[in-house]
Amino acid sequence: MLLKGINVILMLVAVFMGLKQGWAMLSGKPEMLNLFGKWDFTKTGVAVLGLVTALSAVLIIFPKTFVWGNFLMAATILLIICFHLLDKDLKGVGVELPFLLLNLIIIYLQHPFKNGL
After folding, report:
1. Parent domain of 86
2. Using one digit for the tens of pLDDT, what is the confidence trace for 2-23?
3. Is residue 18 part of a domain?
4. How many other CB atoms sit within 10 Å of the CB of residue 52?
5. Distinct helix (H) and strand (E) counts, the chain
6. What is the pLDDT of residue 112?
7. Per the domain annotation, does 69 fall within a domain?
8. Are 56 and 69 in contact (CB under 8 A)?
């Protein structure tokens, strides 16, 4: 029961962060445009990545799309990590790595309500 509670909290954190970052990218916040602009992303490209990030956060909520949502979110985080590595920006990698690990841990723990409440 305790593990299920921890998993719910981790899942809510991942969903909240995914929606928050997805919205920041989708709405074209200047800091997001600056970050992705150094990797030659256009405003439209950042918005599309934001839409994918927000969609992946929503997919995590439902048991049938749980793995797909985590996979999409992990893939977007891994993409950002790869760009940071291309710039030799280990601080940026360090910031993104816990979020990638969070998605992997959530996948390992599985959806807390896949067998009902």
Report:
1. 48-109
2. 888 999 999 999 999 999 999 9
3. no
4. 19
5. 5, 0
6. 87
7. yes
8. yes
Q: How far apart are CA 86 and CA 107, in angstroms?
A: 27
Sequential DSSP letters for 51-83: HHHHHHHHHHHSGGGHHHHHHHHHHHHHHHHHH
Residue 19: inside a domain, yes or no?
no
Report whether 71 contacts 52 (CB < 8 A).
no
Residue 19: enclosing H or E segment and its boundaries? helix 2-26
> With bands split at pLDDT 50, 70 and 90, how would you rate the model's confidence at 1?
confident
Domain total of the chain: 1
Instruction: Read off the pLDDT band of 38 (50, 70, 90).
Output: very high
For residue range 40-90, list pLDDT tens digits in order: 999 999 999 999 999 999 999 999 999 999 999 999 999 999 999 999 999
Tell me which residue of 19, 50, 57 sits closest to 33, measured CA to CA.
Answer: 50
Distance CA 66, CA 115 (A): 13
Single-letter residue type at 75: A
Flag whether 92 is in a domain. Answer: yes
R_g of the chain, CA atoms, integer Å: 15
